[in-house]
Specification:
By secondary structure, the chain is α+β, with helices and mostly antiparallel strands. Helix content is about 55%, strand content about 5%. Helix 1 runs parallel beside helix 3 (about 70-80), helix 4 (about 90-110) runs antiparallel to helix 5 (about 115-135) and helix 9 (about 200-210) runs antiparallel to helix 10 (about 215-230). The longest helix has 25 residues, at about 90-110. Glutathione (GSH) binds near residues 52, 53, 67 and 68.
């Protein structure tokens, strides 16, 4: 069956879009990618996107699918063999943990943009709690649920990519505290679909984004990232 034309709308640093990119690359699905500047959203995007958020997937340029978890399942559905488990309970658990990781993305975002030291520590603690839960849940290898990449791996990889880049002495990601997640990340970060899921100048853009944040966290994390160089 011929695949529809898939056009993914993104912001250059969005961890939710990165899930879709990992999946599309993993499944070798051709797609078009448009990067928008979140500060200057064009009218066509605001008209098409019910939430104003990315990812937005335009299918045959006509139908707009939104919400990253839904986009992932749609892409998985149209590109057999399926990555989402077929047994109802396993499907439910995969979806539940993907939702859990979405909350972790938000805690990480609050941590990266915290205006005060107190907010930085609070968000960092929330993210650390999420990581502890995931560490306890990480029972397979080398991927999260077994030998093969899953939708959950694709959802979690963008979080670890950022936390690993932004290592901070007081931050939530201290690899020695999470041996299973650290080993998971060593494997997943070596996969081409993960390496190629970000823009070329990701690091420089991340530094610019952090420096543009007012208050405590952004400039601190940007300085650490810049100091560690390439
Ligand atoms: N629940 C959404 C969250 C997507 C999301 O928050 N995307 C951010 C960029 S990383 C966004 O578009 N933010 C713009 C806004 O909140 O207005 C999903 O999983 O797709």
């Amino acid at each position: 069956m011929a695949l529809p034309h898939l056009h993914l709308i993104s912001f250059p640093l969005c961890p939710f879009v990165q899930r879709s990119v990992i999946l599309l690359k993993h499944k070798n699905v051709p797609f078009e990618l448009t990067l928008l500047n979140p500060q200057e959203l064009p009218d066509w995007f605001l008209e098409r996107s019910p939430t104003g958020k990315v990812p937005l997937l335009l299918v045959d340029q006509d139908t707009a699918v939104f919400e990253s978890a839904v986009i992932s399942e749609y892409v998985d559905d149209i590109t057999p063999p399926p990555m989402l488990p077929t047994a109802p309970l396993e499907r439910a658990l995969e979806r539940a943990w993907i939702a859990f990781v979405s909350d972790l993305v938000m805690a990480m975002h609050r941590w990266m943009t915290a205006p005060t030291e107190e907010a930085f520590r609070t968000a960092g603690d929330e993210a650390a709690k999420g990581l502890q839960r995931l560490e306890a849940q990480c029972k397979a290898a080398p991927c999260f649920s077994g030998p093969d990449l899953s939708l959950l791996d694709a959802a979690l990889a963008p979080v670890l990519m950022r936390l690993d880049l932004l290592q901070d002495p007081d931050g939530p990601w201290q690899p020695d505290d999470y041996p299973l997640l650290a080993s998971w990340w060593r494997h997943v970060s070596s996969l081409p679909e993960v390496k190629e899921s970000i823009v070329e100048d990701f690091r420089e853009r991340l530094v610019r984004f952090l420096n543009a944040q007012e208050g405590f966290a952004g400039p601190r994390l940007a300085a650490g990232l810049a100091a560690r160089g390439h």
